[in-house]
Amino acid sequence: MILTFFYMVATWVQAWRLSSLRTRLAAILQNSNSPTPTIVFYINSIGCVNQESSVAKSASSHSNGSTDSLSSELCNNRSLAKLGDLLWYQGDKQLCSVYPQQKVNVSDWLKFPLGKTVFPLCMHNYSKDAALGECRMHVLVEAKLDHYNPTASIKATKLEDYGTVVAWTSNTYIALILEMDLDYLTKLSTALMHGQQFINNGLYLTRVQSVVVDGKPCVYNSDKLESFHKNKLIGKAQWNAQVKKLRIFSSTARIVSQQGIPIEVEETPGVYISPGNETPTLHAPTILEITIPSDTIAIQSTSDAPFPSTPPPTPASASAVINGTVSRLSQELSGSLEFSPTSSLDAPTVLSVSPSPSKSHDLALVDSVESNLTKSVVVIDSIPPECLDVVLSDCLTKTPSPKSLPLTSTANYSPSKKAVTGSGNYAKPPNILLYADSTIAIDNVKRVLEAILNRNKYTIYTLSSDEACSDVWMDQARLVVVCGNVGVDVASQLVEYMVRGGRLLALCSDTLHTLLPTFKTAEVREHELVRFSYGKWKHVRMMHHIFCYQASPAKSRFSQDHEDVKVSAPMTPASANVRDKAGKTHTFHVRVLGSEETWHTPSLLLANLPATGGKAVFSQIHLEVDPSQYEFEESKFSALKQSNSARLEIFSDLLSSHLGMDVCSEPRVLPAYSPGFFLGRHELKLEMLEKLKDRMLPNDIIKTGKLEIQFCGRSTQGISASASVLPVMIHQCPDNFSTVEYFENLSSEELGRLVIYADVMTSSMDVVANCQLHHGLAVIPCQQVSGQGRSKNVWLSPKGCGMFTLQLHIALNSVLGGRLSLIQHLVAAAIVSAIKSIPGYEDIDLRLKWPNDIYAGSTAKIGGLIVTSLIESETAICNIGVGVNLSNSEPTCCINDLITRHNDQYSTNLPKLTAERYFALVFSELERILNVVQTGNMNHFYEIYYEYWMHTDSEVVVVSPEGTSQEVKILGIDDYGFLQVCDKGGEIFTVHPDGNSFDILKGLIAPK
């Protein structure tokens, strides 16, 4: 009882000190009747000295006008510094105000990288931005580099907990500029008063002072510093090497600042420091207002965006003005054209542009895009006579939304039959985006989501800090999940996402304070078990968030479970008025879903915006944490294990009941791997196996890049199918694939004449990875466990999806061998042409999105492909992986849905396509187009491609990073499949993804 009393007294004293110091600092900084001073916390030396002598020395130096301790030597006006008020002192530590306000020019400093970094210091530089309130300031922090104590970093004061680091430099000291607010300056000063002088990397802090910042810090390509991001520093020798690198970077930055040109850093090949182009500015806080309306009316949004009703008109010619050659297309452009604003942007694709098509292309160019996105942004480089980086935003065919369009675009489409689309609302692709402040949190959330959600309906991606701060993901997410602290820029984006109708799940995140600013952190309650109830789940014991947000009045402390304490619940505001970036106010309705049972802290809250359908669920309970994380804490582990089923059920109910997600009714079970079947004429199968004989291992096994394939004859002892082994039966036929129907519809001579089919495999691309098997060999799975998209993208592979991989052997000295980047366009065109060439199916609204996506109408992606290649002698081995929604209505719609809708609309009776017929028709059409192209008749392909593509006559605006813009029109593709655009002066530019990679989350193709 005595200990409890002392704890209460200590807590009260601590709170009083914080409140008192904050009030005093606020009075000094916010006094409109006097100039704003600089607040300085300074430690004269390292080690303990006599307090009286220290104070006397400090007072003597002040009276003599010394500025050694008053201001940093990095400040421009240091010599003018005069003591204002001595607010606190103890030993060699002192807190005071200084006049005039001190200034730092950061032109020869370096911009601090965002995100998790080890260089220049170990930190997660995105922790506390969202919690920054008013009275924001830049703060200079200095620490001596030669006082490194690696063991001290365990108990160090982490700078990222007090704001965002924006710039750094080093010499004798390492100096950093942080953006923080008055609350965090108070907390940091208090921590230093209590002796917590060690900061990140175990460095001893010597100075904290508020400053005014000007100048533009230099920048460097931190992604090249891979070696610095692998391991934390653990010894003196490593730290000395780090210090040497810090000083080299800083000295190079000073030279760059003087000369104004990029310079490569000594001893760090590939890392360049360039002059800065952005001055650090204080971000304005998100403006929110709280009201408690007397009456609350829920309004549900029921608007569905219809598909555009018209396909593209007469396509642009394949020819264009290239290097001064005038063609029919340029003559058409000279006529008058009318454009109507019937298009809008989704997510951008960034590409590079050259003035004319290059005849030398890396085979990696054949790699194609796996994406749910419908907007293109283009980075144009080497436009003669100047080098200019620009961004081109490609317009498609959706109704514009002026509030959400970053660029202006228009397109012209002539009316025709109404577009036929599948059922359902496909306004948002089936992407779930995760943002968390730790990889452990990301793994936990992803594991729970994968266990709960319909695995055939959603793809899960992780957002980086930079990606989260951009706008392009907002229209690409069905749900956003955040865990932990977010930055102020991310918090602003989340508010914007919600007011646009987005769905948000915030798990133990300070995003709660962003929406409800009256909710304050009452007290840290680290690693505490609490009881709470939600719906039918009563008295569930789970781990609480390390912070506790609740409406005022905040409690001084929190009881343990065994304490019998009864308190009344603080009032939760019924609504929150939130302003978006444009300053428009939106009213969210707020409701408590579940409360912690001792102090009645809201454990689960729901905020919804009836006007747009935006919703957010906030949890202060760690619903994502698996009990196994506490297996070494017996009491917690036991309680969490008992609550685990309730945890998953509550998580599932929140997703389905409040956020509209499709959850599994039963635990997910991955399909079991199955053997494959070798289909085709017996003689052709023997021919392929004979060619592979020299490469076969014992037991008739061929090793590809990712699999062991065992061709099983009648006497072969087969190996069980697994993620690494695929047994293929040579003399058997599958039960779930009709070989009769397939070969009856196949009219090709080579493509698809040999097939490896399996009910379940990892990925059809794994069968042919880095391996030359046979020209025209098709690999067809019924289901894939690990469907592949481009880069880190995912391709959902449910039953009914028409998936295959086709291997083509193309001579490099052939027509197509000289322009391999066309292959992705040929395959995409063949798929659409194969279906629309069937009598009666001509009006099924399938379209092509450059470079290789297949769309239902203009908004729902139903297919995509990837192409990989390798060189064997004079032959390119191209493996083409294709996935098209054939009979699966999830996650968007499918071809057979379009056929059903067409029958209903036009009273026809077109039969649905079976998988066997679909594959046969596609392989036959692709071989026909390839044969024509290889004869040199490229126009035949262009006629097919332009008939179905969705970009005809699209007019877009090209915007450079500097803000300059010009209007251009998309003309078509060139002989290599790269996009061509024309400016108002008639100059043609070629857009291509040369040397770039695609990321579905950003919708960008950015340089590797």
Automatic annotation (TrEMBL):
<dbReference type="Pfam" id="PF03099">
    <property type="entry name" value="BPL_LplA_LipB"/>
</dbReference>
<dbReference type="GO" id="GO:0005737">
    <property type="term" value="C:cytoplasm"/>
</dbReference>
<dbReference type="InterPro" id="IPR004143">
    <property type="entry name" value="BPL_LPL_catalytic"/>
</dbReference>
<dbReference type="InterPro" id="IPR003142">
    <property type="entry name" value="BPL_C"/>
</dbReference>
<keyword id="KW-0732">Signal</keyword>
<dbReference type="GO" id="GO:0004077">
    <property type="term" value="F:biotin--[biotin carboxyl-carrier protein] ligase activity"/>
</dbReference>
<feature type="signal peptide">
    <location>
        <begin position="1"/>
        <end position="15"/>
    </location>
</feature>
<dbReference type="Pfam" id="PF02237">
    <property type="entry name" value="BPL_C"/>
</dbReference>
<protein>
    <submittedName>
        <fullName>Biotin--protein ligase</fullName>
    </submittedName>
</protein>
<dbReference type="InterPro" id="IPR045864">
    <property type="entry name" value="aa-tRNA-synth_II/BPL/LPL"/>
</dbReference>
<feature type="domain" description="BPL/LPL catalytic">
    <location>
        <begin position="740"/>
        <end position="934"/>
    </location>
</feature>
<keyword id="KW-0436">Ligase</keyword>
